[in-house]
Amino acid sequence: MVMAFVTAAIAMLIAIVPAGIVLCRDELGASVVAYEFITSVVVMVLALLAQAFRRSGEFELAVLLAVLLFGSGLVFVRAMERWL
Fold first, then answer.
1. Which of 24, 44, 58, 59 is at 20 to 30 A from 66, Cα to Cα?
2. In Å, how far are 26, 27, 36, 38, 49 from 20, measured between CA atoms?
3. What would the pLDDT profile of 42-80 be if each residue is shown by its tens digit?
4. By three-state DSSP, how is residue 74 classified?
């Protein structure tokens, strides 16, 4: 059962690669969407790994990142706006 969660986490991490390319190369709107996608995937990966290794305390990090996801997107937009 552990391998299923770890395999799902690895597959989700592979999905980050195209979003990282979009984040680095495209305009601001596409970069914001890619950033939000990447942070959402990282939250899910952390939850999957916490479940895979049966560490309930690790779920706190995933929940905390999920809560901070919206605010970090706004900070990212504000920082990217300065370079336009």
1. 24
2. 10, 13, 11, 8, 21
3. 999 999 999 998 888 888 888 888 888 878 777 877 887
4. helix
Phi, psi of 82 (to 5 degrees): -70, -30
Q: Which ranges of the chain would DSSP assign to H, the alpha helix? A: 2-14, 16-25, 28-52, 59-81
Q: Pick the closest to residue 33 from 44, 46, 45, 21 (CA basis).
A: 21
Helix (H, G, I), strand (E, B) or coil at 83: coil
Tell me the pLDDT tens digit for each residue of 10-43. Answer: 999 998 999 999 988 878 788 888 888 998 899 9
In three-state secondary structure terms, 55 is coil
Question: CA 20, 24, 26, 28 torsion: positive or negative?
Answer: positive
Q: What is the pLDDT of residue 16?
A: 93
